[in-house]
Amino acid sequence: MQMPQPNASVIALKDQLAARLRSVMPADAVITDIAETRAYECDGLSAYRCPPLLAVLPASTQEVSDILRICHDMGVPVVPRGSGTSLAGGAMPTADSVILGVARLNAVLETDYADRIIRVQTGRTNLSVTGAVEAEGFFYAPDPSSQLACAIAGNIAMNSGGAHCLKYGVTTNNLLGVTMVMMDGTVVEIGGGHLDAPGLDLLGVICGSEGQLGVVTEATLRILHKPEGARPMLIGFDSNAVAGACVSDIIKAGVLPVAIEFMDRPCIVACEAFAKAGYPDCEALLIIEVEGSDAEIDHQLALIGEIAARHNPVEVREARDADQAARIWLGRKSAFGAMGQINDYMCLDGTIPVTELPHVLDRIRQMSAEYGLDVANVFHAGDGNMHPLILYNANLPGDLERCEEFGAAILKLCVEVGGCLTGEHGVGIEKRDLMHVQFNAADLDAQMAVKDVFDPGWLLNPAKVFPLDASESHRAA
Amino acid sequence: MMPTSEDELSGMIRDASGPISVQGGGTRGVFADGQALSTAGLNGITLYEPGALTLVARAGTPLSEIESSLAAEGQRLAFEPTDMRALLSTSGAPTIGGIVATNASGPRRIQVGACRDHLLGVRFVDGAGNIVKNGGRVMKNVTGYDLVKLLAGAHGTLGVMTEVSLKVLPLPQAVATLSIPDLDAAQAVAAMSAALGSPYDVTGAAWADGAAIVRLEGFSDSVAYRADRLAEELMQFGAVTIGDVDWSAVRDARAFAGLPGDVWRVSIRPSAMPAMVSAIRADGDVQVMADWGGGLLWVLCAAGRDLRTSITSGHATRVRGDASAAIARFHPEPAAVAALSRGLRQRFDPRGILNAGVMG
């Protein structure tokens, strides 16, 4: 992974910078000790590491503003960090940058059930947002699988999704307003408790900008009342293609499940060995969850069962109660852990048009043989967001590189069939150099124009998202 | 000017010597000074995959053509695009490009989101003639910055869209509307908030002619069940009847069509709506109705009145009124936000020729 040469003159400013930062925030919130800064050297993409120049842990929007103003004055790059769960290297530091961690900003500022909104500081974890409102029967819909740990700040930066976004949308569809600090320290309020923008939809471009336009310190989020109930159904098939066709037919029939999860044989086998969920012995299985009252759930599951029956399923298993539901979800929810038990793996995140599923799965199987690396597929089938897990051996020289090449080939295939490089994990450093595959120079320039307007010095979260050759002239301007 | 291809459009913009007024169907009262550029030549559905819930169409495609193609497969644009012709006394056929450029979203905004939430990708030509694509045609896509949202609602000031790709959804089997008559603003918001805070998946909540109306959609048995349950919960606010209501009249604020005066849309938190209605009434005669559970207020007031002087939160857009008056269409933004908007317009349209002045 090529990164720009760290700026030695910035690194030389470390003591001076630390002194200025300590003049605006408590001493313990400025971390300069090399052993302690190591805690911030990587995120969920742990193959790549680099300790930052120093780390700061602000406790208020004012402190964030002071930090950014000082760094802006001194020309020091800043890498914002939520909980550090990014799988794309979105929060990976550079040697000449300050890590700005929002973990101390974790308060709930306002909850309004009549207006169905909650306003939180963005260091708060995703799951604890739901935790703050569930006693009243409400929840915050986006549910990335890291929701126990990941912060709202990171969710906004990466526009995080989750298993239930087929019905409820992703972060951008549930975000109503932000307090954001610009790189020069200016605090802006965008959006609020209302539903649309008075001018350009700045909120829409801030969400998913990977922390490169500003540091979001507070967010107004839409909350929803929980459905009366939810239950899954498991359907096994004797081929990926048939399972894919069944997904398409369900959607065409007008049923809109809240989740449709897909697992292929390698994934089923690994999960079965790990979690012993009692999954059928088959080539592909779908877990489909619907919501509503008991009668509504019965009706929808019956419809789905009828559609599935036309595709000669190997097995159809409908959850009758909470215990059976938990068993159906058990294997799926332990998929990543199961794969981790048997191997090192790289998790991809490309999205494809749902109609291309069978073709893409076939191609991945062929490529798996060509590269000599196994792949297990588990993904959100309703929206085409794939998560191929490529298995490799980190201790075998050259295996990681081969795995990365294979991964890149799969992502190129996703783009080729009309999809994209990343559905919910973000570009970060991981997919930065593949951006040319999906976008031409004019496409990238238009995106970088936004960066130029929000952060003219290109100091926020440097060397991410845009290929270095494409961004060079913008960074130098 | 009426380009028939993206390349031709790119050349026209690159070679333009003065301002350009971008026109879709011309039904939404958005007119800039300058040479008219019609998207009518960029026409047709280019891809429709019912099984993937996606439709791609060129910007000048009439909405009616898209809606009939979708209806044939039992699907629809779930964000309920508004039709402003009656309210604004305009004629012509609304285009999908015009809908996206104005982010025209109806009552279902509160449940499924706005037009911008259903927009998966755009192709556009910026003010320098560059052809740009962003997003794509898949439901989940975080590859690069989301210019799709930025283009939605930009009223043609950042670029001229040539193609849009949209998420579509199934048509429901059944619809039912619960009505509670004779409610004031505070009672109506309370009733609508109770409905929207229930587990019954409300797809519309409006207040018109003093009645709160609440819509449910889905499979027949499910709608019947939820209507009964919700009616029980809403009885505390008044007598509840269950029946059919023409939601397109709510969507298009048709009650104000043909009546004299200016029309405004005020976007607020629902809980702030009753006090705002009182403040607006205290400053002059008005008619009001609300959509989005009270979060969107439609106001008919005397011509030339600056409604913003009565408003202390949210924002107000004047959708009908004398264009030569000093009142801006859009609510002024705080200085720091306005600077960002201005900066973006300068970067995407360096000569300031696309729908100049339409957004400030």
Automatic annotation (TrEMBL), chain A:
Chain ranges passing through the membrane: none
Cofactor requirement: FAD
Stated name of the protein: Glycolate oxidase
Keywords, sorted A to Z: FAD, Flavoprotein, Oxidoreductase
Coiled coil regions in record: none
Species the sequence originates in: Loktanella salsilacus
InterPro entries assigned: FAD-bd_oxidored_4_C (IPR004113), FAD-bd_PCMH (IPR016166), FAD-bd_PCMH-like_sf (IPR036318), FAD-bd_PCMH_sub2 (IPR016169), FAD-linked_Oxase-like_C (IPR016164), FAD-linked_OxidoTrans_Type4 (IPR051914), Oxid_FAD_bind_N (IPR006094), Vanillyl_alc_oxidase_C-sub2 (IPR016171)
UniProt GO MF annotations: FAD binding; oxidoreductase activity
Superkingdom, natural source: Bacteria
Automatic annotation (TrEMBL), chain B:
GO terms of molecular function: catalytic activity; FAD binding
InterPro entries per UniProt: FAD-bd_PCMH, FAD-bd_PCMH-like_sf, FAD-bd_PCMH_sub2, FAD-linked_Oxase-like_C, Oxid_FAD_bind_N
Assigned keywords, A-Z: FAD, Flavoprotein
Domain of life: Bacteria
Chain ranges of the FAD-binding PCMH-type domain: 1-171
Annotated PROSITE patterns: FAD_PCMH (PS51387)
Keyword Flavoprotein part of the UniProt annotation: yes
Annotated protein name in UniProt: Glycolate oxidase FAD binding subunit
Species this chain originates from: Loktanella salsilacus
